[in-house]
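Whiteboard transcription, Tuesday session. T.W. wrote the C-alpha cells on the left side:
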C-alpha cells in the first residue's frame, strides 16, 4: 500500500508537465488570469485538481511556472563572445509570431499582477528573480571581457531598457515587438548606454 501512495505522489513526466503548461497558456490566452480556474485546467488536461495542487500548490505558481517553461532556454547559456552578439542571439530565439503572442499574454498577466499579490509573489520568485540572475551573468561576462566598465551607471538598467522596449512597443507605436525592432533598439539605445560601439 505504501508503494501505491508513493507512486501517486511521484512527479509527473517532463512531457506531461509540458502538456500541462501549454494548456495553461492556452487557457490564459482564451480567458485571462482572473477567469482561469484550477477546475478548467484539470478539465482541459484530463487531470485531477488534487494532482495540480499537489504539484504546483495553486494557480499563481502554476501560471508562473508555465510562463517560465515557455521561455526558450536558459538566458545564461547564451555566449557568443560579445554582449552585442548575446543580446542579438537572445532576441532571435523567438520568431515574430511567437513574440507577438507572448507580448499579448504578458500584457494581460502584468495587469493581473496589480490585483493579485500572490501572483506577483509567484512571478518574482519563480520567473523574475531567476531570469534576472541569468541575465546578470550574461552582463557580468561582458564586464569581465572588458566590454563594459564595471562602474558604468547604465548597468543597473539594462533589463529595464529591454523590458521597456518590449512592453511599450504596442502602446507607443501600435505595433507588435519584432526581432528587427528589438535588434535596432539594442544597437541604438542599450549598447550606446553601456559604452559599447555598434559598428
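and on the right, the sequence the group agreed on:
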Amino acid at each position: 500500500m505504501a508503494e501505491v501512495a508513493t507512486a501517486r505522489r511521484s512527479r509527473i513526466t517532463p512531457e506531461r508537465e509540458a502538456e500541462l503548461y501549454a494548456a495553461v497558456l492556452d487557457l490564459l490566452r482564451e480567458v485571462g488570469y482572473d477567469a482561469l480556474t484550477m477546475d478548467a485546467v484539470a478539465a482541459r488536461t484530463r487531470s485531477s485538481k488534487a494532482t495540480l495542487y499537489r504539484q504546483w500548490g495553486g494557480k499563481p505558481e502554476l501560471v508562473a511556472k508555465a510562463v517560465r517553461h515557455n521561455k526558450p532556454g536558459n538566458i545564461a547559456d547564451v555566449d557568443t563572445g560579445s554582449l552585442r552578439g548575446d543580446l542579438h542571439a537572445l532576441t532571435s530565439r523567438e520568431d515574430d509570431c511567437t513574440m507577438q503572442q507572448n507580448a499579448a499574454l504578458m500584457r494581460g498577466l502584468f495587469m493581473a499582477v496589480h490585483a493579485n499579490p500572490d501572483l506577483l509573489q509567484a512571478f518574482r520568485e519563480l520567473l523574475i528573480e531567476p531570469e534576472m540572475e541569468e541575465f546578470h551573468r550574461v552582463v557580468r561576462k561582458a564586464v569581465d571581457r572588458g566590454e563594459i566598465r564595471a562602474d558604468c551607471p547604465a548597468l543597473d538598467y539594462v533589463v529595464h531598457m529591454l523590458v521597456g522596449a518590449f512592453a511599450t512597443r504596442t502602446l507607443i507605436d501600435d505595433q507588435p515587438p519584432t526581432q528587427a525592432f528589438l535588434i535596432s533598439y539594442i544597437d541604438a539605445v542599450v549598447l550606446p548606454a553601456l559604452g559599447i560601439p555598434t559598428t
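Someone added at the bottom: Residues 1-9 have pLDDT under 50 and may be disordered.
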